[in-house]
Amino acid sequence: MSSSPPLPVSTASDERSIWRDTDQYKFRKHIIDLQQACNNIPEDPKLHVPEDWHGRRPSSNDDGRVLPFEVEERLSNDFAFLVANQKDAETVSAVALEEIVEPPGLIAWLAANGGVQEGVVNALQAIFSILEKCGKRQLHRTVCRDLIFDEVVALNRDRINGRLQSKNWIMPGYLGAARREQLHQSLQAFAQRAVPIARAVGAASLERNIDDLCLKYQSVDSSIKDTDEELQSIKAAVKQSHGFCSTPDGMRIEETIASYGLDPGIALQNKHIRQVDKIGRYWGLCEDMASTSRRYSNLFKSIRLEIVPRYRPFTPSVVFPNKAILCHVHAEIQLVTFYGLHPEIVKIKPRVLGVSKAACYLCDLFIFHQKHFFISKTHGRLYHQWNVPDLKEFSQSQLLEYRHALAMMNDQLQNSLATKRRNQWRRAYPLESWQVLRSGFPTSPLPSSVGTLISRLSSPIASAVTSSTMTPRARPIDPSPCPGYEANNSSTHNALGSLYSNAPSPRLPASSHLSSVRKPHLVSSCHAAMPTQQRENLSLSASSIASSELPVQRNFTAVSPIRSRIGNMSLTFETEGAVQGSVAIARILDRQSPTPANSIDVDALKPGEVKEFAREADGENVVLNLNHSQDQSTQITLRWL
Which residues are within 8 A (CB) of 361 and not within 5 positions of it... i.e. 6 or more apart? Predict the structure, then answer.
């Protein structure tokens, strides 16, 4: 079984077209204009929150459903990740897991941008056969895990070599003369920057673990390509990567990084650390699949693979830049279209579209407005080669849904274009294939009353941090100094205050409403004397507060932070989790007036210094005084909503 020939992408008449109410030429022209206005990045990367999607989701029959939402999300993302076995756009994949009621079982619907290759089909069928045996208790879970791992590594051997930048990897021609630095070299350079700023208790462990990791990576590089020696070296490197990012008791990469005394919110934006996590995932997903097959054994006694049809490229009349372009139907849209065309064959409709990499800006918008599926993440990048099928087979309800989605998208493109033309700020290119770092293991959340104040270096180098978790939803931040920038040691030190809670990682679209599920994790950060680009990299698209507006009170969230520039301080306030926080900011000109217990002299903070504070057990807020000049303080009141 492999992909059949691609189907025609446009067969509908003008009257039955999904473009009847939206001018396709203008729609695509808006895409091109927006690309030029925002450097192809109209929004920041973000994670979506399932609770928000459940609130927007059309009514659906969930009778007989077995898999919890979180398990369906994790499994579908894992399957999509492991089948994207090459570094190219053709293998970008999407997976939907459909539960069968009678007899119990699973169907994995698989789509890929360029069609599904025979090797991928064979590997998945072998993995499904192993999982079925484990579900029937014919295999021990550890044996199941190891057998799956054999299949996963065999399928992704070249992909892992590419992630390692090993000499055994043949770089694709489209990368041209791209600079090639092996991952172990990049990690050693990262360690040289990170170890000096890690807490003393974590520095030695960090250095030792990176050294051990680099040795495993070097053994892959020194092996002979396509030999058993190389295969065993790759397996050892994958397991070592997983061990670096997690612990046997379920600690996640965010907590592991924090245990070294580094800020997860900054260290995890480093693309080399992200690469380690992705390499380790090849082992972690095998463990998780083996456990899940036993836990939901009824479903896993029968697993079937089905391939979703792909579509032919389409050449629109609008050109960019002054040449014909081919537009493609992405894997996520292939799945959405398939389920719209075949409602009669589905008893329990999948809720999640698992993806091998974050969805593009247009896929994310279309799926958001179409409402039937949840997708975990978007990297926020805009592609003018995007397309959606326009078929005569569409039902009337499907036509109405697609027309509505395209109209809403067109409005948003125009609004974004108007905004970008007024504000010329441009984002850096995002990491498109970062993963959703959610563990299958329970963690012990920190109490919501605990907080920390951290001084940062005046250069962009990451300083010591908290044990909180921060998920990747902003642009990549490399802890190395920006080119051409020298730290001004006499300038005001940077400060970051964090209030911890047991809030989940933020997974919320910026345009949606928030529902308070848990108490928020409030973060205020002051980072003076930083280059403009680095300050922008530390936060999302945020509303700003000018000094002239003080005193002021605003609400903020994980995806809608508040930024304020006061004197020589730049402050950012945000939450972690799908909840809201509130900040009130006021100037205190009289330094002799009574001050709260949490009073901090910003100029006196040392690089890497950590100060902890706590709100009262019966209190609703924390009050901080930041003394940042000889005769002026700023009072900040952070409140849980």
Answer: 42, 43, 378, 380, 381, 382, 383
Residue with tokens 């939907």: 96
Percentages (nearest 5) of helix, strand, coil residues in the chain:
40, 20, 45
Q: DSSP per residue over 382-411, as a string?
A: --TTEE--B-TT--HHHHHHHHHHHHHHHH
Q: Strand 598-601's sheet: what is its strand order? A: 552-556, 581-588, 632-640, 621-629, 598-601
User: What ranges do the domains of the chain cover?
Assistant: 159-260+269-290, 450-640
The span from the CA of 635 to the CA of 556, in Å, is: 17
Query: What distance in Å separates the CA atoms of residue 528 and residue 531, rounded to the nearest whole number?
Result: 9
Q: Are 390 and 414 in contact (CB under 8 A)?
A: no
Half-sphere exposure of 586 (CA within 13 A, CB side): 10
With a cut of 50, which residues of the chain have pLDDT below it? 434, 436-542, 577, 607-608
| Residue 248: other Cβ atoms inside 10 A | 7
Burial category of 401 from C-beta neighbours within 10 Å (exposed 0-12, middle 13-18, buried 19 and up): buried
Query: Angle between the 118-135 and 271-295 helix axes, to the nearest 10 degrees?
Result: 50
pLDDT digits (tens, 9 = 90+) for 434-482: 454 433 332 222 223 333 333 333 322 222 222 222 222 222 223 233 3
Query: pTM above 0.70?
Result: no
Cβ atoms 121, 82 nearer than 8 A: no
CA distance 399 to 20: 10
Cα 36 from chain centroid (whole Å): 25
Contact 52, 367 (CB under 8 A): no
- Considering only CA atoms, which of 640, 613, 452, 498 is closest in space to residue 555? 640
Going by C-alpha positions, the residue among 5, 632, 7, 1 that lies closest to residue 334 is 7
Helix, strand or coil for residue 625? Answer: strand
What's the rounded Cα separation, in Å, for the pair 534 and 519? 29
Residue found by looking up tokens 């670096």 in the block: 244
